[in-house]
Amino acid sequence: MAKIATVITDMFEDVEYTDPAKAFKEAGHEITTIEMEAGKSVTGKQGDATVSIDKGIDEVNPSDFDALFIPGGFSPDGLRADDRLVNFAKHFMDEKKPVFAICHGPQLLITAKTLEGRKATGFKSIQVDMEYAGATVEDKEVVVCQDQLVTSRQPDDIPAFIEQSLKLIK
Amino acid sequence: MAKIATVITDMFEDVEYTDPAKAFKEAGHEITTIEMEAGKSVTGKQGDATVSIDKGIDEVNPSDFDALFIPGGFSPDGLRADDRLVNFAKHFMDEKKPVFAICHGPQLLITAKTLEGRKATGFKSIQVDMEYAGATVEDKEVVVCQDQLVTSRQPDDIPAFIEQSLKLIK
């Protein structure tokens, strides 16, 4: 069983949280939702999903988690405006723990300056940002880099994203 | 009188469109709102402002405009997923016409690969993206580069943004 830190705030892409989170839980893993503040709820951009935040960023230590999940939408851009969230994400990349980022999720990894030399994908609008940040971007449904970083582009890619993510947290 | 192309879609930061647009019009300039499609309205992320789109991107030629205005919010990220909008913005940068970009506005200029060697600012969350794209980022309310590119960070900076923008379209 893996402890998966999930960083999320308002305007996340609803199914990019709900579908992977359901699959991870069904596989026996534990999801902890983390935002700037604990005790609140955040809402997806489609208005379909509301997520209760388990922990505020000041209450958690990245060393206590085995993997990081970053759902997309406009949530990652909100998170990366806070240096604490950027540093939290950087830990997982530096320690080579599994990181699962979909759609705009890689934005947080760019701001953490952790994509240099990595192979990855992301939503179309951020692909040039990712290239500038030193990543080799592949326009594929899922890209797995060094058995550690799993990235996908958009909601259509969710099944492949889940499949490859689960392989890294057996 | 300058003809100012304004590229905008849903989820723009309301006052980052309304305040500069009002000031530009009061100074005698003409604003043309441009989106992927004509004949629709787009809504700000605060829900305070709705903007009628004057022209679809396929109906306009960038040569017919004197300047480009890119309001912030999540609008620029929506626009830059469409290559036609990216190419439209590139024209103004390549031709050294005045470009006014606030908050997330510079995202469109990153995707157009036009920030290399430029001095600029932007919303905190995109500053690392801008640096990776080759810009020298200054954390100031307004940055004017080569009497052509005016950038600001956030709504608080709007008065300085308007003042410097107007100087370039006397």
TrEMBL record, chains A, B:
NCBIfam families listed in its UniProt record: PfpI
Boundaries of every DJ-1/PfpI domain copy: 3-167
Keywords from the named record: Hydrolase, Protease
Highest taxon above the source species: Bacteria
CDD domains in alphabetical order: GATase1_PfpI_like (cd03134)
Official protein name in the record: Protease I
InterPro entries, alphabetized: C56_PfpI-like (IPR006286), Class_I_gatase-like (IPR029062), DJ-1/PfpI (IPR002818)
UniProt-recorded Gene Ontology molecular function terms: peptidase activity
UniProt key word DNA-binding: no
PANTHER family from the UniProt entry: DJ-1 PROTEIN, DJ-1_THIJ_PFPI FAMILY PROTEIN
Pfam families reported for this sequence: DJ-1_PfpI
Family (UniProt): Belongs to the peptidase C56 family.
Entry keyword DNA-binding: no
GO biological process per UniProt: proteolysis
